[in-house]
Design goal:
The chain is α/β, with parallel strands linked by helices. The chain is about 35% helix and about 25% strand. The strands form 4 sheets. Strands 7-6-15-16-17-14-18-21 form an 8-stranded mixed beta sheet. Strands 9-3-2-13-20-19 form a 6-stranded mixed beta sheet. A 4-stranded mixed beta sheet has the order 1-12-11-10, with no helix packed on it.
């Protein structure tokens, strides 16, 4: 068995693991990333594209924002479509100048991979049998297999950035975790197409046929979604059926503007809300999807991972520079305060905009009334806007 040593072992080379690694590397703290998939597989995941201002600033702090700043689309608002009614949520005006950035998660990951390569920081892709050990001791380590050889990675701390199905959370004894979960009775059927966006900003549409979202990756690439039953099969949806259904759920002026084309990717994503508490076990820290999942309606998944990264990075910075080991025990409580607020907003957006087959007439009317109250009130629109652009990161003192 080969023995390696680093300060922070990171499990998972998705955007959260890579971003944490880059921030720590820039601060002179050694990291080694272990990832079970290939780089191509990681880049092949089609995910979110709306970055909160806090995440944009964190990517700039990490020194990986050049392409994002050149190619990303700054949005100062978004639109709600309720039947034929269209309501503009002016993020910029309602939040004192804050905005969001449209820049795909795939591109964020690509930029972070390139930065890590240039830095010469080690990443072990296609690592199997990854197992963290000794998390409750002062000498944790990770074992894994790569190219038929066994490795032991000694470290000070372990960051579990390996997603919902990853090994990090599964390595914590069940009795030590409390799970909170809600599974929704529908999913999002999404397609990616090389077509111009139907509108200059994102459009969230509530319709009696179901929810729809008009999103984008650039001025020439679009991402559209339809609410479909949870048991729906992607192969039952031809491109033509998708475009026809999307047009049916959009206000007529938008439907008339929609440019259709062949899909270059099509998939169905289930929707769930999920949180585990606490987000740490000894010297193992859960980051991003390893600890929490949100329905994508509020565009919070990747952004919550970034806020976890910011919290862990700033704690570790104070640990290594100032000896503030007392801060380690505060990671979970700090993260969870923001996580639960984002969970609430994502649940609220999902509840307000989707059609629930099991809701009675009274519940449907209450949801419609609540949404109308929020959008017809400046205070309500401000609440939506400040949650959408992202609540502030908590300072580490």
């Amino acid at each position: 068995m080969k023995t390696l040593k680093t300060q922070v072992a990171i499990i998972g080379a998705g955007p959260s693991g890579l971003l944490l690694g880059q921030l720590l590397h820039n601060a002179g703290i050694d990291t080694l990333i272990v990832e079970r998939q290939t780089p191509e597989y990681v880049l092949g995941r089609i995910r979110a594209g709306v970055l909160e201002q806090g995440m944009v600033e964190l990517l700039r702090q990490a020194g990986v924002s050049r392409r994002m700043d050149a190619e990303g689309l700054v949005h100062g608002g978004f639109e709600l479509a309720l039947g034929e009614r269209r309501v503009h949520i002016d993020l910029h005006a309602l939040t004192g100048g804050r905005t969001v950035m449209i820049y795909g998660q795939t591109e964020v990951t690509r930029d972070l991979m390139a930065a890590r390569r240039e830095a010469g920081a080690p990443t072990f892709y296609q690592a199997s049998d990854v197992v963290p050990h000794g998390m409750k001791t002062a000498e944790p380590f990770v074992t894994f297999e790569k190219d038929g050889e066994l490795y032991r990675l000694d470290c000070d701390y372990i960051a579990g950035c390996d997603g919902f199905h990853g090994v990090a959370r599964q390595s914590i004894p069940n009795e030590c975790l409390k799970v909170f979960e809600r599974v929704y009775p529908f999913g999002w059927l999404g397609i990616l197409a090389d077509t111009p966006p139907v509108h200059e900003e994102l459009v969230y549409a509530r319709h009696e046929r179901g929810f729809a979202l008009c999103s984008m990756r650039s001025q020439t690439r679009t991402r559209y979604y339809l609410q479909v039953p949870a048991e729906e099969k992607v192969e039952d949806w031809s491109d033509q059926r998708f475009w026809d259904e999307l047009k049916a759920r959009l206000p007529q002026p938008l439907a008339n503007e929609l440019v259709t084309g062949p899909s270059i990717e099509k998939s169905i994503a289930p929707l769930r809300s999920f949180v585990v508490e606490p987000m740490q076990y000894g010297r193992l820290f859960l980051v991003g999807d390893a600890a929490h999942i949100v329905p994508p309606t509020g565009a919070k998944g990747l952004n919550l991972a970034a806020s976890d990264v910011s919290t862990l990075f700033n704690i570790l910075l104070k640990v290594y520079r100032d000896g503030r080991v007392d801060l380690l025990q505060r990671y979970s409580e700090i993260c969870l305060r923001r996580v639960w607020k984002a969970e609430r907003f994502s649940w609220w957006m999902t509840s307000m905009l989707h059609h629930f087959e099991d809701h009675d007439a009274f519940s449907q009317r209450i949801a419609e009334s609540e949404l109308e109250y929020f959008i017809d009130s400046e205070a309500g629109r401000k609440t939506i806007a400040e949650n959408y652009v992202g609540l502030p990161y908590e300072a580490i003192e």
